[in-house]
């Protein structure tokens, strides 16, 4: 039998093989034609809806608790959003009118939710993924109303590879990594909940394979390669032997090149589960904490106290490593309902990142800064809630997203200083308690910017006067340099970090920082590609941050490289005029 390969989007750089199991949830409505309206007792149907809603709420609360314990608090928050949908007044009134006009409760739920689902489907990025959440809530209600059994994903046989049209948050919450070897879905993108779960749990997964996946028969032998983004049906013995064999030698110590240049290899995180994975994979620190993840999938922003706890725990997880927290990067494909973002024709070119933090979200920004500075101070002195005499060094660095002017940097910096001095003043006013003798100095943290717009790359020489570090965000830098939207498959190759124009933007940035006190790192996807490590070291980067699961491979690539060899490679890359040339310089050893 010859093996067959299907391509999709790999979401976690691990692979595995197993037996295909199709997950096909019950059709939403078993009887699509509703009975005649005059036969319906509207009051009884409304009461059925109210009871089903109550049951759905208890189920969701249980799932929330289970997910918080198994994966993490942030992942569990999606269920809060589902509970919120259940109580949404617009949905409630839609169901009520449908029931009043003679629809059975199941049909009233189906019709009302479908309207909202269609609206979200018409949007892009994370708003579109909200449609998944609504489908999930709709199907739950209909299942309860029609007394059907729920398909149980938690009890699949060991080594199952789950195949599905899509996996909702409720589905993914049921996945047991001890039984599930991996999964592949017809639909879904890198930022879908399923993808985020897969990365957090280091579960091999490929999403967005398309309808060709439907040709895979249940019980087939199958492999999922989350690095290459391929699903392999009937893998040959050679392929079988290769999968799951990512040579992951985890190194918890920091590493240097073969000729002794230290390179910091850090992890990108968004949730508390990611922080745990980062530690397990031997990351030296956190090179990008995508703080906006704390704000997504919930009904209102996290309080200062909640943020404080999360940041402090991140800092304490890496007592000897640097923890770079990127301030809120909302807008673009990351939408938040409660922030009432404007409708924009080109949200990636609109009010996003630092533009919002210095504009409509200024208060949120200040709250975030307060939480960060307090967490850093208390982590360092071992004080505050739960603090003892232990002293862990909260090595906080604050980083701004989507910078394109010098003024944005100076304005944000003066805001940090003001917030820091306000904390000190407030603490100074309150010196009557037992903590008064503790060192409450609020240090201004290390301060940096992401280089992810062409403007910031061009302004890099001047930016070095204002910041301690640059972190190059190749995901956005490639999109903006190449004018090729990052989530659009049609321009995937054009928007690739191997384009010579992107290489030149990176080169320009690193050259600008040479001979200054500003160090340069990278936290875009390119940093996690071990075949690019040599080129990046040759360019002069000293820090690379990536998905935690890529840390072991990149650490090994660092140790196999010498700076002199790497610099020779860079000379060739500088001459490159095509993507193919840069690609030919990959280090695929
Ligand atoms: C980037 O743009 O490269 C980056 C790391 O940030 P994000 O992917 O969160 O936009
Ligand atoms: Mg970015």
What would you report as the Rg, rounded to the nearest angstrom?
A: 25 Å
Which small-molecule species are bound to the chains here?
phosphoenolpyruvate, magnesium ion
Structural class category = alpha/beta
CATH class of the largest domain: Alpha Beta
Domain PEP-utilising enzyme C-terminal: 251-561
Biased composition (Basic and acidic residues): 572-589
Keywords: Cytoplasm, Kinase, Magnesium, Metal-binding, Phosphotransferase system, Pyruvate, Sugar transport, Transferase, Transport
Family: Belongs to the PEP-utilizing enzyme family.
Topology (elements, then pairings):
Layout: E1 4-7, E2 9-12, E3 15-23, H1 42-70, H2 73-86, H3 89-100, H4 105-121, H5 125-145, E4 160-164, H6 169-174, E5 180-185, H7 193-200, E6 205-207, E7 221-225, E8 230-233, H8 237-242, E9 255-256, E10 262-269, H9 272-280, E11 286-290, H10 304-317, E12 323-326, H11 354-357, H12 362-381, E13 396-400, H13 406-429, E14 446-451, H14 454-458, H15 460-463, E15 469-472, H16 474-482, H17 500-513, E16 519-522, H18 533-539, E17 543-547, H19 551-559, H20 563-575, H21 579-584
Parallel strand pairs: 3-4, 4-5, 5-6, 10-11, 10-17, 11-12, 12-13, 13-14, 14-15, 15-16, 16-17
Antiparallel strand pairs: 1-8, 2-6, 3-7, 7-8, 9-10
The chain binds phosphoenolpyruvate and magnesium ion (MG).
